[in-house]
Design goal:
It is a single chain. 48% of the residues lie in helices and 11% in strands. The chain is of the alpha/beta class and 303 residues long. It folds into 3 domains: 8-137, Conserved hypothetical protein from pyrococcus furiosus pfu- 392566-001, ParB domain (Alpha-Beta Complex), CATH 3.90.1530; 184-240, Orthogonal Bundle (Arc Repressor Mutant, subunit A); 255-300, no CATH class. Strand 3 and strand 4 (95-99) form a beta hairpin. Helix 5 (124-136) packs antiparallel against helix 6 (143-156). The chain starts with 11 loop residues before the first helix and ends with a helix.
């Protein structure tokens, strides 16, 4: 193994994928096969032209902090690139980035035309897995990016959740919790992505089944700066509240209202209409046939 051997902290899956055993046991289903001459040039560290490197089509990361890139660029100008990027051959003198896009971008900002790279063989599935796993291991990756990466590994790498957990060094319940984030309404997912709410807030909201209640609590978190514990308390209260007692809807057809309508008609000596809505609100209509009849009704009302 070369001095470029990865630390086990990157997870069993990534270290296995980066193992040099591919040199002696190349994958059978390689989508982009290379010649024997090209194979002999793989699995080594060398210096290659940055202009010959294509971006990784399987890159799951969509956002890069420009300030952090500038800081890394300044560091590269002074110290050089400490950790080589990883690429695969993609034709004669052409390469495709596997991992290290942030380092590649910073090197371009630093004005470098060449870069140290670990050249290795990899098929498309290995490319995808390595790109996803490398990004998942980053501390600054937001929870939605992690969840989307997990989902891509399940869908495109034909993995089960327990296999995925082994690849990324996480237990199955952690994987499940991330995947459940993708069931939240888009507005909440955006807030998680933009770090307006935390993973803890999101996990509390997941247990609320009603989407409108989720969105209401989500807005309360943002407007009032609610802590995760406070949201959990609100959710527990919401889920443990007893169902309200059924409300008996009083309508104009109920016996009580019919009796009241008859009594009013008798008092005013005219047909009285009593209108009652389902919420208990309504109106009384007392018709009159002339000004004299109106005066009579007003006198009865002591007007």
């Amino acid at each position: 193994m070369t001095s470029f051997q990865r630390k086990t902290g990157l997870g069993r899956g990534l270290s296995a994928l980066l193992d040099d055993n591919d040199a002696t046991h190349p994958p059978k289903n390689t989508v982009n096969p290379v010649s024997e001459t090209e194979q002999r040039t793989e699995n080594h560290i060398g210096t290659i032209n940055i202009a010959d490197i294509e971006t990784n089509p399987f890159q799951p990361r969509t956002e890069f902090d420009q300030v952090a890139l500038n800081e890394l660029s300044e560091s590269i100008k002074v110290q050089g690139l400490i950790q080589p990027i990883t690429v695969r051959k993609n034709g004669t003198n052409k390469y495709q980035l596997i991992s290290g896009e942030r380092r590649l971008r910073a090197s371009k900002l630093a004005g470098l035309t060449q870069i140290a790279a670990y050249v290795r063989g990899a098929n498309d599935q290995q490319m995808l897995e390595m790109a996803l796993i490398e990004n998942i291991q980053r501390e600054n990756l937001n929870a939605i990016e992690v969840a989307l990466s997990f989902q891509r590994m399940l869908d495109e790498c034909n993995l089960k959740q327990d296999q995925l957990g082994e690849r990324v060094g996480k237990n199955r319940s952690t994987v499940t919790n991330y995947l459940r984030l993708l069931k939240l309404p888009p507005a909440i997912q955006i807030s998680i992505r933009d770090q307006k709410i935390s993973m803890g807030h999101a996990r509390a909201l997941i247990s609320v089944e009603d989407t409108s209640k989720q969105l209401f609590l989500h807005q309360e978190i943002i407007d009032k700066g609610l802590s995760v514990r406070k949201v959990e308390e609100l959710v527990r209260s919401l889920n443990t509240l007893p169902l309200p007692a059924p409300v008996i809807k009083q309508t104009a057809n109920s016996s009580e209202y019919q009796k009241l309508q008859r009594d009013l008609a008798s008092k005013f000596a005219t047909k009285v209409k009593l209108k009652v809505g389902q919420n208990g609100k309504g109106a009384i209509e007392i018709p009159f046939v002339s000004n004299d009849d109106l005066s009579r009704i007003l006198e009865l009302l002591d007007w």
